[in-house]
Structures are given as structure tokens and as C-alpha cells.
Amino acid sequence: MIRPMRTARLAAATAAAALVLASCAQDAETPDAAEEPDATSESSEETPPEETESSGEPTESEPMPEGKGDGELVVGYLLPTTGDLAFLGPPEIAGVNMAVEEINAAGGVLGKPVKIVPADSGDGTPAIAPAEVDKLLGKDSDVIIGAASSSVSLSVIDKIVNAGVVHFSPANTSTAFDTYEDKDLYFRTAPSDVLQGAVLANEVVKDGFKNVAILARQDSYGEALADETAKGLEAGGATVATKTLYAADASNYTAEVNQVAATNPDAIVLIAFNETTKIIPQLIAKGAGPEDVQIYFVDGNTADYSEDFDPGTLEGVKATYPGAELTGDFRERLLETDPKLKEFTYGPETYDAAIMSALAAEAAKDDAGVSIGAKLIEISEGGTKCMTFEECLPMAQAGEDIDYDGVSGPVDLNDTGSPSKATIGIFEYSADNTFENIDYITGVI
Amino acid sequence: MRVRPSGIAALLLAVMFAMLSTAGTAAAAAPKDKGCPTVRIPERDDVISVVGQLNDTSTTPCTPVEGVTIIVEDAEGTVVGQAPSEADGTFAIPLPGAAIDNLGTTITVKLDEDTLPEGSVLTDKKKLSNTVEIKTDGNLAITFPIGPDPNPDTAWYQQLPQNLVDGLKFSLLLALAALGLSMIFGTTGLTNFAHGELVTFGALVAYGFDSGLGLPVIVAGLIAVVISGLFGWSQDLALWKPLRNKGTGLIAMMIVSIGLSIFLRSVFQYFAGGDNHNFSEYATPEPFQIGSVLLTTKDLVVSGIALLVLVAVILALQKTRIGKATRAVADNPALSSSTGINVDHVISVVWIGGTALAGLSGFLLGLTQGFDFQLGFKILLLVFAAVVLGGLGTIWGALLGSLVIGVFIEVSTLVIPAELKFAGALAVLVVVLLIRPQGLLGRAERVG
Questions:
Q1: Is the torsion defined by CA of B205, B210, B214, B216 positive or negative?
Q2: Does domain A68-191+328-421 fall into CATH 3.30.1330.60?
Q3: What are the chain B neighbours of A281 within 8 Å (beta carbons)?
Q4: ipTM of this complex > 0.85?
């Protein structure tokens, strides 16, 4: 023997083990983030060291000074342009751009135009969001709008709020944020999944289904929504045939699909992201496709599948996602900002997040993250109602208590920074694998 | 190569063949009906109604159950409304007051068991009431399932055939990738962490020809396999051969392969984006049933191709001149060289063959379940597990290892939660290696 076989084997085994550990670490990252504030605060301390003296930004994590901003409102966005959620990115980015255009057209915030800093959140695998957040913080962001995925937000929330910056998500629906220790700097314009779960379950029962299987992505979004849906189904008298979770980076879904099909469900709730395009064919191959049982989608996978499936594949599939009916010319204005838009999911929520941040900065007469965070709830509820930035601005400047009602709904934020009231749309897919609205349900959380 | 392991593998192959041949005679399963017809009860503005539909599912189609009294009580137990079910089984009980007053309150909806007609039995006899919090301004739906339990507890072995077949399907595709990896390791000693990307490469190239140029999927797949082979050949020529000639250590080459893996994956993502893709044809096949197993024609064709190619490669390795030379090089490169075998030529052939197999594996994986730029990376660990489990560098070992891993992943979900399926398979790897460090079919080496 010339080749050192044993060494090579050892090396292969070690490397394989390293891969296992690496992939485990990646999976575990999200929940761990909550338990390891040390690690994250450390990194946030070291992120923008050079800006500290020039701007007086509150970058120290612990004693958080009532910081004074640098006079220029910088809105960073952390939205997906790559990964499984990339389809959500364009309407959200258009929402931010459009809001900032309008704000600047009306004279900007504190007399200066608002600046946008873009960043890509990815979908969590690989975890690019933390590095992108460093970039945003390094460029003096006062507000970070994003991310779309709850898991991604959870992986960067400590870093953002410890830097004294507002973390404002237009699309996080995980229930985890209702109780998260966020220094009162986390806000969202998308309602917690408690409501979407209830509406979805009610819709399933209303449609007459009794033995319902739930197939969900195993992350903080999927599990929470699956739990809420299961709760709602059982409260409505239906049976949860199975609640099967799949690993988000699984290489196949056959066993999970088998488990679902084996329970003989009359309806399936599929809580997934873009991997829906892998799961639907497997459901069909196991006799549990949209033709055989009623399938329900959620906000994570309500997308235009006209290029992914043959016509008719998804006909009759129903879906829920949070968001009020778009009123007036919002859709057209968003299309002016980005003429290539095919979908508008979470565009209104993102727009509202940007407008509210600007109004809060005006109300606080300061653009620092902590100052904006202290005013956001106040401007969202109770007070004189106003609908646009232009309309709200003079009142906010005069120190009047305003109640901003946005394009995504009344956006009355409660003390946890989440909307206390919200509208959930019910949609149905037609033969061309696109969806249209059939109903809107408003509820309280 | 010894006789015993090849005998075992031949037996396994024969079993697979037998399963496939019985599959041909199946009849198409009738599509299930979508359950009971849905009666949509119209919403009334500003009033919340408790609505629902009672259907007895003991008959096919199900029969609406009429005349059952449904009672709604508020949180204090006061009856706020009641109504019998109509001829179509529906009931609608408006709650007193405006919708806004009822938001956030809790109500209990009860079924009066005495009014249930003879022969109609509740699925869960004890569940006569449901307590619900009203969270939305729309109608609140409540159901009381009537009829037999649609999901009776099934014993694990009733699902075994389906999982076994699915596991076999996956292990065949795994084996294509594992065989290539094992061949390259056997002849060059390289632990190639970029092998996963060679798998993805096949799927991506096929996708490019299929959706980019509009070629039929099968043609695109064939082209992809050929291009994969060329890719392997040029990779060896431009990268691995110079490294070997410079006497780079195996560990250093392994690190190079990890770098190459990351590089290729990023390139793939740049060109293909992060989304999942399906080929333009055969994306959503209809299943047919054989016994308790659901299969699609696509599954059969994919498995058949994989099996044929595996058999052909193994025969080539056993019978042809170049195959024998390959095995000789795998055994002892220096000695083979001195007997007149052109080692560099053999290694070139192995690279072409190995990457072509990986490319085919990627194409077939993409065909069965769609793919994204991480397709190969996601299965790389399983491929390594299969190769190490079977015995590094041995041909039969790669096959047996793939079989064990692939089948175990699927079958283990009958007892463990599905999200742990890969963990279970890798636990098997650890246990086997503890007992047999050289792998199932690997040669034991003398220590010291």
C-alpha cells in the first residue's frame, strides 16, 4: 500500500462529522439566538465602532442612552432578494422605496431627505442576515425594515435592538415576537399568527372538513402557525389527523408526505415556503394532491405558480395571508415604483412600516432608533386619524397625538409592538395556478 | 473484490428487479372524492353566526344529517341561541348583538345528543361541545364529525411497503452518486467534498437545456450526463492532475475540494437563483396503486434507468479491460503502473465516469422532486455516509451503503418523528462504524 488509506478514512470521517455538526449548528441557530444574548451583544458592540463619536448613535448595548440622532433618518432594509423567500422581496422593496419617495417629496424627515440602505436577508440557510445587518448598522441605519422570515428576524433581533436601532418587520408573523425581550424596539405591521391560524382553521371547518392534516416547515414560523392552526381546528370540532414537521433543508419529503397521506385526510394545510414546488408533486404522487383533497396554503407559500406547474394543478387550492384589501391606487403606485411586480404580498405592510418610522421620528423630533421606538406605538393608535404621510406630518410636527391608518389596515400597535387588529385575506387558486381574493376577515388578537 | 459481498449485492439487485417487474401490472387507482359537498352559508353584515354542516360519512357519498339541535351558550352558560340542522345538514345560529360586541368573547357550542337520528353516531362520542373564543368578525364554523373514524390507528407495518419502496427509489439515486464518489476515492485517494456540486451540475445543465432551449427533458438529461462527464474530465485535467503531480497531500486536496464545493455552489446560485425548479415535463404525475403501495410511472422509469446504469457500470468494472485496470489501480497504483497500465488514463476515465454518474443522479433527483442550487450539497452528507458505511473505496460497499441509508431514512419515520429521519440514518452509520470501523464491506486494515 502506498496511499495512506487509514489517514484518508480518518480525514473523511472527521470532515463528515464536521459537516454534521455544521448543519446541526445552522439549524439550532435560531432558537439559540434567544438564549445567548452575550454572543450577539458582543458582535453588535464591535460592529460600528468608528461611527460612535461622529453621530452619537447609541451603540453600547447596556446602558442605553436616550440618544440624539445625527439629524438624518436612515432606513435600512433587510429583505429577501435570494433564497426560498425571494419572491416576497420585490413588493416589499418597492414598498420601502415608494414610501421614502413620498416622504422625501413631502420634505423629508426633520428637514432632511430620508436615506435608504439596502441589504439581503436571504432565507436563513445559509445565514447571511447577520453580516448584512452589520453592513446596515455600519451605515448608521436608524430603522431596519425586515426581515420577511421570522427565523431570520430572530437571528438578528438581538444585534439590532442592542445597537439601539428599531427592528420593524413588515412580514414576521411568528408568535415568538409577542413575548420576545426586545428592549421595546421590535415592531411589526404584520399580525401575529395567532390570528392567521384562527382564520385558517375556521375556513377549513367552514368548508366542511373534519379530518385535517398539517404539513409544516420546522422553523419558528412554521411551527407556530401549525400550532395555532391545530388549536383552531380542534376548537372548531375538527380532528388534526397529523401535524408533520419537515426539516427546512431536507433533501426529500417522501416520508413526511407518506405520513400525511397515510392519515387519510380530507384537507391538508401546507405551511411552507418555496419548497411547495417540491412538496405538491409528491402529494400528487401519493394520491393527496389538490385534485384529491382540499389543500390550504398560508402566507409563506401563497405565490404565483403559473411557471412552476401545469395549468390546473393548483385549481381550487385555498390560501390565507394577512393584509387588507388594497384600496385606491396603491397597486398602481407600487407598479410605478417597480413595473416588474407580479405580486403585492407585504408591499403595503412594508410601506406602512417606513411611513410610521418617519412619522415617529417627526413626533420625537429626533431620528435615533430609541427615540423612534418610543413614539411608534403612540402614532399608530388613539388620536386624530390620518391616512398619508403628508396629512399626518403637520400634526406630528405640532406634537398632536395622531393615529396613522395605513394601506395595510388600521395598524394599531399594542404594547408588544404588533398590530392588535388585522385583516386576513382568503384566496383561491384558479386553473392558471394564480390566486385571487374571495374574502377578507377582520379579527382582534 | 471478493465473491461474498458481490453475491449479496446481486441478490439485492434481483429483489429490486422483481419488485419493479411486479409493478408493471398495476391498475390505475380511482381518484378519491374530495369528501362531502360544501354548503357555503352566506355571511350577514355585522352579525356573527355560528355555522356548520352535519354529514354522516358512514355512507358514500355522505348523507346530510337533519334535525339535530345545536345550542350556543355564552361564557356564563346562558343559552344565547339554538337551531336544528336543515335538510342539507347545515345550521346557522346568529349571535345576539353586533359583531363588534361579540369579538373577544368565549362561547360554547353544544350538540343535543338526544336529537341525533338513529344510526348516526358521532366519531368521537364524548365530544358533544366545543368552546371557542371569537377572534374574527366573520361566521364562526363548528363541526361535529359523524361517522366512522377516517384515520383509524394503523399498525406501523401497514405503512412499511410504501416506505420501503420510497426508500429503495431514493437509495438507487443515492447509489449513483455514491458509486462515482467511491470510484474516485478508490483510484486517487481524493475525498471529494465537491461531489455534491457535481450532482447539482447535472440537474442544472439538464434544466438549462430543458427550460432554456426547450428540449425534451429526456434529451436534456442525456446531454447533461455527457456534459457532466466532460466537466469531470476537464476538472481532473486542470485541477486534480496537476495537484497529484505536484505531490499535494490528500488532506490538502480534500481542503481544495471543500473550497471548490463552496465556489461551485455560489456559481450555481448566481446562475440559477435560490428558487426551486421543476423540469418542464413530468412534474406532477398521477399515481397508481399496487397493493398498498402508490407508485408513478415516473418513479418506475427513474428507478429503472438508475438500476440499469448501476448494473452496466458494475459489469463494466468486472468484465471490461478498462474496468479491470480501474480495479487494479484502486488496489495498487504503483504496481499497476509497473505492469503497463496507464494510470493517468484510468484516472481520467474514472473522473469522466464518476462525474457522469453524479450528473445522472442529479438529473434523476431533479426529475423526482425538483431541485435548487443546493440539491447536491443537501445529499452530500448522505452520500458520504453511504460510502463510509459500505466501506470507503469499494464498489459494492457504495451500493450496499446507499441501500441501507436510503431505506433506513424512509422506514425509520414509522417509529421516529419525520424531522429526525436523517439523524436516524446517521446514527446507524456511527453504530456500524463502531462495530466495523472499515465499513460493512471494507477491508480490515492492520493497525500498526
A1: positive
A2: no
A3: 278, 283-285, 369-370
A4: no
